[in-house]
Every structure is written in C-alpha cells, then in structure tokens.
Specification:
Structural class: mainly beta
Number of domains: 1
Distance between the termini: 20 Å
Largest sheet: 6 strands, mixed
CATH architecture: Sandwich
CATH topology: Immunoglobulin-like
Order of helices and strands: EEEEEEEE
C-alpha cells in the first residue's frame, strides 16, 4: 500500500504478489477488525500479482482504515492500517 496516510479522496495504490493467477477479487475498506465495504472489483494477473488504485472513502469517525482483498467468502489479504490525515 502506498502511501500509508492521506486525506479522504486521495488515491492509494495496492500491490500484492503470490496470489492465485487470473482470479477475480473484491477490493474493500473498513476500520481495523470490523466489517468492510466493497470499493471495486479487480483481477489478478497471469503471474498472480495485483496492482490497483483506490480512492480513500470518507467514513464517519474513522481515523484508520485497512484495505481488504477478498475472494468469495475468504479474505485473502488485509493491509496495514492507513491513517486518515485530519
């Protein structure tokens, strides 16, 4: 994830490797250890990598968010916390 902090509405790049090849994923966001909201769908490459840009949503009262990659019912990856700048 880059950057690891920013304003609501800023763009974050999520990069992952070692995923299943050519697989659809859901990209979501939420507060750490809570349910998440789906932002968009994505697909891994034929090499099992993912590189996707997402916009940081405004969420009432949240100062830290995590981005989630999910495949069906299983969470594949959760990012380190992203700090929302005041």
């Amino acid at each position: 994830m880059s950057p690891d902090h920013g304003l609501v509405g800023s763009t974050v790049t999520l990069t992952a490797t070692g995923l299943p090849k050519d697989e659809p994923l859901l990209v979501g966001v939420g507060a750490p250890n809570t349910a998440f909201q789906v932002l968009q769908s994505a697909r891994t490459s034929g090499k099992g990598t993912l590189n996707v840009e997402v916009t940081v949503p405004g969420r009432q009262g949240d100062t830290h968010l995590v981005f989630v990659l999910r495949d069906g019912d299983a969470v594949k990856l959760t990012s380190k916390p992203f700090r929302i700048a005041p």
